[in-house]
Amino acid sequence: MAPKILIVTGDAAESLEVLYPYQRLREEGYEVHIAAPSRKTLRFVVHDFEPGFDTYTEKPGYTWPADLAFSEVDPDDYVALVVPGGRAPEYLRNDADLRTILSAFFDTDRPVAQICHGPLMTAAAGALKNRRVTAYPALEPDMETAGAAFEDTEVVVDGTLVSSRAWPDHSAWMREFLTVLRTKAPVT
Predict the structure, then answer these.
(1) Is position 170 annotated as part of the catalytic site?
(2) Cα–Cα distance measured from residue 29 to residue 36, given in angstroms and rounded to the nearest whole number
(3) DSSP label at 53?
(4) Residue 22 in contact with residue 97, Cβ under 8 Å?
(5) Which residue intervals define the domain DJ-1/PfpI in the entry (predicted)?
């Protein structure tokens, strides 16, 4: 049986930050499940960078079904966790079931990949204190408030925690995450 990896997300997640790791990890032989506040068809978004805008723009993205609700997740069933960004982390970080899931992975030192605004969720779970991370650069004050040392670089590996800034950093993010996974939770 293939090791299972959990992706936690919701509506308004960045399409690429959910679907790139979903496909890449399946390609490696992992079984990947997507959990959200409820079982439903999720509506993702596309964040892009356009000349003349002070920040990213947002457009409608893909839809994708959630395999299970946060309340149905048994963290012990999974060897690793992926925490995508987008706008979803703004409201998901308030979900008690999600914070319980996040804490379970950090408390047992299992691999976690987070990107963009995803670290807002791990910060809300109290998991970033004394960690080195990167995130979307506008989150630097949030990461420091959470007790993390922020680095504005394409990928930061701190033990089993692998973080990146945004979807343009996907290649480095998944390369480093797979390095951690092959050591901690290899596909056999």
Answers:
(1) no
(2) 23
(3) -
(4) no
(5) 4-178
